[in-house]
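Worked example 2:
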Amino acid sequence: MPDPSRPRVRATAGLAAGAGLILALSACSPSSVPAGPAPASSTGSPMPDAHIHGLSVSSQTGQVLLATHDGLFDMTKQPAAKVGATNDLMGFTGGTDHGVLYASGHPGEGSGLPNPLGLIRSTDAGKTWEQLSRQGESDFHALTATKSGIIGFDGTLRTSPDGKTWNTVAVDFVPAALAGSPTGNTVLATTPQGIRRSTDGGQTWSAVNSGPVIQFAAFASPAEAVGVEHDGTVHYSADAGATWTRKGRIKGAVQAVAAVKGDRPSIWAATADGLVVSTDGGVTFVPADAS
């Protein structure tokens, strides 16, 4: 990360963490985010857009998808190929079934979709999208899927069993990011005060007092989770985020992470310098095109 136009930025601790999160959230509020796509990066970065909001890696096909202000991109193509219509995908997550994706955000230029998008779903890996619920109401900056449903944050934490009907959950934290496994019910929320953890699909939460203050989290399986601090330090959990072990460090500003199950989980990260991947559980990282 960090990027002042996106909601998932925060420093590691203390007043700086709180200020960074508040500024990022206010900068990405529905009243301040433009409906059209942001211009692509002009810095020579290999990434298709400077503003990256989500990363998905298919365990079945190996397809790497990047959700950005300028839409969805297939990073397994050279050069990266736009997938589907151009929309500002602020929230993005994979679903239970292969090819199922959920997203939220704002419509792109020329789109007939409402602003904000509410919750939209794709069943063909992002080629087409259907409107599920809360169109014109919700811009879910934090979004994840579990075995029991969808959890999203649009200023209020909400859960849904089917993506259409929603319940609100009263919490005393503002999640910068939400992470869950589509085949499990544990959810992790990253906050400036530390990790918050739910084992019932987001209905109740507790603090992980011994855990690191992470900026991003991702699940490789219902039990295996990874977390990344603001400075790129990587942590691994074998018990769904209850306890953590420090691993290696990602160089450059991390903007999104994903994890894939294996003998040791593969950990992917989108940085301003490009995609990197670890195949040794987060100890070392190399450019994705060199792995």
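The two ends are 22 Å apart (CA to CA). The chain has a mean pLDDT of 87.
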